[in-house]
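Objective 1.3, modelling of assemblies. Example input:
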Amino acid sequence: MNAPAYNFAYLDEQTKRMIRRAILKAIAIPGYQVPFASREMPMPYGWGTGGVQVTAAILGPQDVLKVIDQGSDDTTNAISIRKFFAKTAGVATTTATDEATVIQTRHRIPETALHENQVLVYQVPIPEPLRFLEPRETETRRMHALAEYGLMHVKLYEDIARFGHIATAYAYPVKVNARYVMDPSPTPKFDNPKMDNCPALQLFGAGREKRIYAIPPYTQVVSLDFEDHPFEPYRFNAPCALCGAENSYLDEIVTDDKGGRMFVCSDTDYCEGRQAAGHHGSLSAAPYKEKAHG
Amino acid sequence: MVDQATLDNDEPLLVAKSLSKSFGRIAACRDVSFSLYPGEVLAIVGESGSGKSTLLQMLSGQLTPSAGHVSYRMRDGVTRDLATLGEAERRFLFRTDWGFVHQDPAQGLRMAVSAGANVGERLMAVGWNHYGRIRDTASDWLTRVEIDTARIDDAPRTYSGGMRQRLQIARNLVTEPRLVFMDEPTGGLDVSVQARLLDLLRSLVAELNLAVIIVTHDLAVARLLSHRVMVMKGGRVIETGLTDQVLDDPREPYTQLLVSSILPP
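Predicted structure (tokens):
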């Protein structure tokens, strides 16, 4: 063995080439799931092994990396992945959406509008939108190939029949470029409209399932619905308790055992940015200011 | 002047020409030819292993024949060889102009989704995109197959065997197919449920001018539903003719044996 013990961004160059080929194919066929030879990563499946491999394959020394988990920059998953690349690639990291060139995300799209020089990398647990409707993978592949998507509407039909409205709140199926139906990973359906005609490149990596798919910049992404039950993004009907934002996606935080709760922006960077700009919410008089993380 | 409908009924809907299928050394089906006209019900009878199911699978394009071919007159009036259809076209045909009723409803239904969605699936597959209309059509069909519309949101796994079979029929007929294949549709049902199902099938077939190819080993089913009967033995058609003729006055010894093996009423 005379292989070097260290390579930039953890993966060896041949592996990165393999992943990049899959990414190129995925970009060429928007929404199509490209198989790739997913590697073992130093983290468990379900923690973003797919996203990490995609990030490793596209990361260059000049890139600035941001990692979010449910919109937050400071949860375990986000911090460990950020540290992982700071250590193995030595790239600059940030929590500011604007400054980042590569954003790896789990289950959210940042509130701040993305721009052309950015790549958004999603961690995907289950890439197949038809998985729980049609158990045979051979059959779902054929359905994608022939664009037979009636079954996807069966799921939405079931929702309305059972709950009176489309109750699917996350991983809401979309049609990309008027061809492939795609699972947008478990992002809330609130984020679906942001995928449409987005200036940034969106890449999706599923490590355990060994699939990569993509939405190229400025691609049409339509959420599936019925004429009489149109798609509606969902949001708690409250302003953020910390920054007063009326149009951001909110997390519900239970504050005591007497029914007390507060709603705060799930995107921490967006919320902090607004607070720094002088916006206030009903609970923003915090007793102490937490030190900025990084 | 002859109107278009009469003309349509004079042209065969499906034509099988010297169909054969062998699995290795076993010839499951040998040299079967026939024509099926719109609105006609053809029963294929014979004991197990006589090649009836193999024949049905070839006719419905699920199995490629070793020799011979099947052609079908599409909705646009053009008769085409099934072997030349692309997979997409064949699958489209299967969920619009054809129906397939399986013996085991679990094969033809999605057991975990509601009855309404089971019936509506074909509509959604051909692009229906209005929940209200899909649901209305589904509940209309449930009524037609005598299922209480209050059960529309229940999954078929909560249904009885007879209800499942009727639901399967509704699911197949919702796109108004012209040809329905049935593989032992009454197998596994008790006698009174069978009678009710046959009654329902008979009225639907007449009402919708359906052509049906029904595979059965039950001569009573053949007598009740079909206009014509084909008797198969060892992969060959040994006798064919009008149902009453074949069953009342069988010519072949094997058919005579089949007919005489039914207990007299």
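The mean pLDDT of chain A is 92.
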